């Protein structure tokens, strides 16, 4: 697969890993059981914003990228977005803790793991040196790509920001 672009169909074989949020496991030190999340199936009939960070708990991701999506959740919902998800190469336990550390409850934002950056690498959107997922944003509307952009400058959040996505919904 090459990089996704507007008009493309979202691939039919995208599976991430994640730890489902539950109230009894909302404490940072509580661990749930990772499960497979079949994004292709779950998102087939929904409007989805998927954004990727190179790593949970890294400065740009934690200070500049994720907070914009948390702040803009109501605006994204007003634009008809059913699911907001963040993905990184980190394992599902780290991604779960990343959500908890940022006080995201329930399924407001899904914190997904792209093991070995498989999805990101398939599009050429993983860092060739570190193997981490790139910093990007994709809007999927009922299986069709409406927006797909990757940041080309390290530490920059412009094309993949919540504001950029909102402007393109």
Automatic annotation (TrEMBL):
Family statement drawn from the similarity comment of this UniProt entry: Belongs to the peroxiredoxin family. Prx5 subfamily.
Residue ranges of every copy of the Thioredoxin domain listed in the record: 4-169
Presence of the UniProt keyword Thylakoid in the record: no
Single GO cellular component term: peroxisome
Biological role stated in the UniProt entry: Thiol-specific peroxidase that catalyzes the reduction of hydrogen peroxide and organic hydroperoxides to water and alcohols, respectively. Plays a role in cell protection against oxidative stress by detoxifying peroxides.
Tagged with keyword Oxidoreductase: yes
Listed GO biological process terms: cell redox homeostasis; cellular response to oxidative stress; hydrogen peroxide catabolic process
Protein name per the record: Thioredoxin peroxidase
A Pfam entry, by short name: Redoxin
Annotated InterPro entries: PRX5-like, Redoxin, Thioredoxin-like_sf, Thioredoxin_domain
Domain of life: Eukaryota
Keywords for this protein: Antioxidant, Oxidoreductase, Peroxidase, Redox-active center
Active site: 61
């Amino acid at each position: 697969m090459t990089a996704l672009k507007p008009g493309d169909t979202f691939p039919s074989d995208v599976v991430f890993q994640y730890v489902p949020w539950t109230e009894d496991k909302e404490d940072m030190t509580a661990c749930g059981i990772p499960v497979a999340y079949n994004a292709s199936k779950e998102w087939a009939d929904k409007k989805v914003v998927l954004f990727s960070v190179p790593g949970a708990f890294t400065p740009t991701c934690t200070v500049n990228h994720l907070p914009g999506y948390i702040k803009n959740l109501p605006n994204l919902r007003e634009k008809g977005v059913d699911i907001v998800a963040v993905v990184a190469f980190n394992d599902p336990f780290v991604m779960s803790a990343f959500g908890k550390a940022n006080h995201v409850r329930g399924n407001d934002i899904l914190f997904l793991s792209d093991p070995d950056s498989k999805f990101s690498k398939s599009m050429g959107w993983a860092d060739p040196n570190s193997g981490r997922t790139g910093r990007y944003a994709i809007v999927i509307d009922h299986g069709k790509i409406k927006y797909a952009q990757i940041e080309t400058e390290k530490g920059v959040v412009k094309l993949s920001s919540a504001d950029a996505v909102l402007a393109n919904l």
